[in-house]
Amino acid sequence: MKHEANFEASSTQETSPYYHDVILERNGYRIIRGRETRDYAKQWIVQKRQSDRYRNLSYHLDWHSIGLVHGAWLINPDNGEPTPML
């Protein structure tokens, strides 16, 4: 039996489309806040949508490094359309 998607639900699994701590979502990419533990500092994770899940592309401790690696279009919505950087 097919069920309707529950958009009110959130998930703690980072690759889930319903992950609870999405910072920014744009053109099939998203940036999430990774879990902070004693072993890992606060970090941002850049992901790309693949099928029904997200795949981690890179991990960043500094917000501006995301723009250096993936292009400013990802972190600055006023910067136009994306250009492939991967």
Structure description:
With 86 residues, the chain is of the alpha+beta class. It has one domain. Helices cover 14% and strands 29% of the residues. The protein is built from two helices and four strands. It is globular. The N terminus is likely disordered.
Based on secondary structure, the structural category is alpha+beta
Number of strands: 4
Shape: globular
Instruction: Give the overall average pLDDT.
Output: 79
Low-confidence segments, given as residue ranges, are 1-7
Based on CA atoms alone, the radius of gyration comes out at: 14 Å
Summarize the biggest pleated sheet: 4 strands, antiparallel
For the largest sheet, list the strands in their spatial order: 1-2-3-4
- Which bin fits the share of residues in helices? 10-25%
Summed up, the helix count is 2
| Amino-to-carboxy terminus distance | 39 Å
Topology order in helix (H) and strand (E) letters = EEEEHH
Q: Strand fraction band? A: 25-35%
| Structural domain count | 1
What topology emerges from the helices and strands here?
Layout: E1 22-26, E2 29-33, E3 44-50, E4 53-60, H1 63-70, H2 72-75
Antiparallel strand pairs: 1-2, 2-3, 3-4
